[in-house]
Structure formats: structure tokens, C-alpha cells
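Summary: Need help interpreting a holo structure output

Steps to reproduce:
1. Submit the protein chain below together with the SMILES for zinc ion.
2. Request a joint structure prediction with the ligand placed.
3. Inspect the C-alpha cell block that comes back.

Expected: a single structure record containing both the chain and the bound molecule.
Actual: see attached output.

Input attached:
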Amino acid sequence: MNTTQPGSSLVIDTKEVGRRPGSMASLSRTIEAPADLGTDVIAVPEGQEIDLDLRLESVVEGVLVTGTGSAVATGACVRCLTEVHPTVDIRFQELFVWPDRVDHHREVGDDEDEEEYRIENELIDLEPVLRDTVVPSLPFQPVCREDCPGLCSQCGARLADDPDHQHDVIDPRWAALEVLRPLAETAGESPVETDEGKRN
Ligand SMILES: [Zn+2]
Ligand SMILES: [Zn+2]
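--- attached output ---
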């Protein structure tokens, strides 16, 4: 389990809002994207600066954090491997529970399986929230455009650049059969010639 590190751009001090229920604070933060913010095919690069608008609202159980912002992911089109840079909207609203309210929150919570974020050492760590928000919103199979035709199966050329792309060259797997073709054609044509010869 990772401990909440003060000083990280993703860590917010609860002193910003205080513990009195009803008090609120708004702040803008430029955070740095943590490592592995994404999947194998697409992710927000580590260290990318993301501007987040945050609203903190102190409630009895903890601090309700609302965040909005956007990040730019980097990935590769699954069809043609071109780099893609989709923008990801970040929107979350999560309750961070005070450690001394955790048990009570569990009792009144409507869903015990729901992931629970906790305030640790008076600090709120946004990293898991950011991860839970961003990663599922990334395209599972990114494409450079919806109708990306992909790559030529023979030479790997991008078909989007050259839609009429064709090969006259015979696939090596068929080359062996091609050697037999003249024989087959001769065999097939000769009866026709014979028929025509008879009619004439
Ligand atoms: Zn593509
Ligand atoms: Zn080709």
C-alpha cells in the first residue's frame, strides 16, 4: 500500500478546507501525471502537466473532492500503428473519509464493496482517484480514425495514405502454384480448341 507523500503535486492538505462540515475551498492545481496512467496501448505520459480545478467540501464523514481537467494521452492506432493523442476529460467526485469515521461510514454506506478513499495524515492523495478516472476512460482499442483501413497485409504500407494500393507481385506462398498454371491452362484449353476444330 502506498503511503501519502506530502509534497507530491497530487497530494492535498485538508487544511485547505478545514474539518468544519459545510466549509468549502476551490483551488487550481497543476499536477504531474503519475507513472502507468493508462494501459499497454495508450496512456497519459508520466510527468505530463495536468491542470485540475478542485473543489473541496468538508462533510461529517470526510472531504468531498470534485475535480475537473483534461489530459492528452499518447498511444498507437491498433490498425495502422500511427501515433494517436486523444484528449481525456477528467471528472470525478469522491469522498475521502477521515480515519476516525471509517467504521461509521461503513455502517451507513450503501455499498460496502465500493472503493473507499481515506484521508491519511490529514492529507488527501488524488493519485488513486486520478487513476480510477483516467484509465477506464481511455479507448480500449485506440484508432487514428474510425474508418482507418489499417496496413497492407503484404508490404505494411498505410492504406490511408494510398487507398488504391495494390500488388501485382504474387504472394510467395502462391508462387509455387503459379509455376503449374501454364500447364493447367494448356490442359484446359486444348479440348476447346479440339471442339472448335471439329465444328470448323
Ligand atoms: Zn490508423
Ligand atoms: Zn502493400
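--- end attachment ---

Reviewer comment: The first strand starts at residue 11 and ends at 13. The chain is about 25% helix and 30% strand.
Status: needs-info
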